[in-house]
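Hey, quick one: can you model this chain's 3D structure?
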Amino acid sequence: MIEVDSTAGTARVAAGLRYAEVARRVDELGFALPNLASLPHVSVGGACATGTHGSGVGNGCLSTAVSGLEIVTADGELMTVDRDRDRDRFPGFVVGLGALGVVVSLTFDLVASFDVRTRVYETLHLDVLDDHFAELVSTAYSVCLFTDWRTPRLTQVWVMERTTDREPAALTAPWFTATPADGPRHPVIGMSAISCTQQQGVPGRWYERLPHFRPEHTPSSGAELQSEYLLPAGEAVRALRAVNAVRDRIHPVLQVCEIRTVAADELWMSPAFGQDSVSIHFTWIADPRAVLPVVSLVEETLAPSGARPHWAKVFTTPPEALRPLYPRFADFCRLVEEQDPAGKFANAYTDRYLRGGRDRASHQEELR
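Sure thing. Here's the predicted structure for all 368 residues.
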């Protein structure tokens, strides 16, 4: 179900649809979503419930485009939550982590459709970021940086610019020593780029360029674990330097690391809540035993920067360390208790992070 209101500039979308399906439909009617994740394969409901994002200093996470939700509540009723009508608690519902009910549909604010071109550059030394990080990530509508942490360098810089924007000045600056790729590239060095979206400056529709991967192909490497951490934008250089100091532990279990930017929002459980953010994303090999100790190392390394883990990816941060990172965490927990006092939508994950570690059986006994 995709219902576009051309007058209002909104789209009501079934939560189970993939972004690739939604994007094509709204584009046919002259509209666009402000941004997309690197994988268009993800579901609309799942991505918004976890604060999933694309990149761009002016672009919020995907959830920031949501203006309304339809939710099946714990008592089986269908409830509508609206950004304007429910102003006080709406920011708690959007990134809901599945704990508030079953999201049936979402209403998105749309923008006018636009064209994008992607250019990929290779091999930029990490030292350049010390003085030019903010300039580099601000040079286009969406900029994504990649490294394999084998050496202190960026293996690739993806620059995605709207075709109506001026030529990015940073790409001709003396400090920008990366060289244009001589053909299409996959973010993971050595993998075929057949699954990737068009590059080399060829213009195309927003939904064909902002993601890294084509919806008809297997995304990324296809066999992997993922972790991601969002931290204040001002901490980016220090955090990257800290990760570089332990790269010898990281690269043996890493496929690729991606650095992106996300604009601040007011959604209570969004990892970008209240602060312009930089995300550091790790695509690991598919070996939990080898990867988890390194995940813990990365978290220790990024902890001084106040890094918030992505809710839907692998992390080991304990609840007592995670809760203080979210100023509205207690408000969200109260909202969960109000909406689902018996814990019908609870599970081991929500019990651990949202219900103070109580198991569901003991919590239900308390309610009796």
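One thing worth noting: Confidence is low (pLDDT under 50) at residues 357-368.
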